[in-house]
Design a protein that fits this description.
Layout: H1 2-16, E1 23-27, E2 39-45, E3 63-69, E4 72-78, H2 89-92, H3 94-101, E5 106-115, E6 124-133, H4 161-174, E7 179-185, H5 194-202, E8 207-209, H6 213-221, E9 225-235, H7 246-255, H8 257-271
Parallel strand pairs: 1-4, 1-5, 5-9, 6-7, 7-8
Antiparallel strand pairs: 2-3, 3-4, 5-8, 6-9
The structure holds hypoxanthine.
Length: about 270
């Protein structure tokens, strides 16, 4: 059933573009502007794609784009689905599975996150080197489809070490501040309490957000190499005295948009 749906989705997308990208990118909250730097072959709203579900979150536009950056073909998802929107985990990871069946081998995940690493400031970037899944659910629960991957996927290198090194090099070349650390995935939609943030720090995290973990798990199941980057749009609850708001998150994501675009372009050229 799921495989039949995916086959239909993939053949529809193939009918709209003949590009064969090896790289997929999921653009997080406020980070969708990267697509302005693509030479677009096809821009398909989620609601035109069979079995895709539209996203309801502000700052997430909901398009699947096939295009090229400096002649390298890529697929970009402008917007993603979150578990807190009420979607099933199967729905949340459906676009990731679609990209894998379209032939990508590498997946770049991006997100906005709250930071609580010692020297973090709003507007910083954090390379995700590992995650802690605190969502209380795993997208692979239920019967395993062995055509997609194994029952018990290894997660030792959920985030490819070479990609981590290359991302570091990219930031160093740009002379841009960055952090490296563990991303804690929570369901939201509330932001955390200060006590929860102290707990996340105690267990070794440096950033917290409401996405990425499901896609990273599905991508590892599918055998994709994963790179992931957080834009620290705000200090997490209780670290500064400010109250948190989605407006602050999208505004700060916008402030670092140019750096984010420069990073992605440079990183893509390194993995092509
Ligand atoms: N917490 C959880 N998710 C987030 C945050 C945060 O502080 N900022 C952006 N996404």
């Amino acid at each position: 059933m799921l495989l039949d749906k995916l086959t239909e989705t993939v053949s529809y997308i193939r009918s709209r573009s003949s590009l064969k990208p090896k790289v997929g990118i999921i653009l997080g909250s406020g980070l969708g502007a990267f697509v302005q730097h693509l030479k677009i072959d096809a821009k398909i709203p989620f609601n035109e794609i069979p079995h895709f579900v539209s996203t309801s979150v502000e700052g997430h536009q909901g398009n699947l784009i096939l295009g090229t950056v400096d002649d390298q073909p890529i697929i970009a998802l402008q917007g993603r689905l979150h578990y807190y929107e009420g979607h099933s985990m199967d729905t949340v990871v459906y676009p990731t599975r679609t990209m894998a069946l379209l032939g990508i081998e590498n997946l770049i995940l991006t997100n906005s996150a709250g930071g609580f690493g010692d020297t973090m400031q709003a507007g910083d970037f954090m390379i995700i080197e590992d995650h802690i899944n605190l969502m209380g659910i795993n997208p692979l629960m239920g019967p395993n489809l062995k055509q997609l991957g194994p029952r018990f996927p290894d997660m030792t290198e959920a985030y490819d070490k070479k990609f981590v090194e290359l991302m570091e090099k990219t930031f160093q070349d740009m002379n841009c501040r960055y952090h490296k650390g563990i991303y804690c995935g929570v369901t939201g939609p509330t932001y955390e309490t200060p006590a929860e943030v102290r707990y996340l720090k105690l267990i070794g995290g440096k950033a917290v957000g409401m996405s990425t973990v499901p896609e990273a798990i599905a991508a590892n199941h599918l055998g994709l190499r994963v790179a992931a980057l957080s834009c620290i749009t705000n200090l997490a609850a209780g670290i500064s005295r400010n109250k948190l708001s989605h407006e602050e998150v999208t505004e700060n994501a916008k402030k670092v948009e140019q750096q984010f675009v420069d990073f992605l372009k440079s990183f893509l050229s390194k993995i092509s």
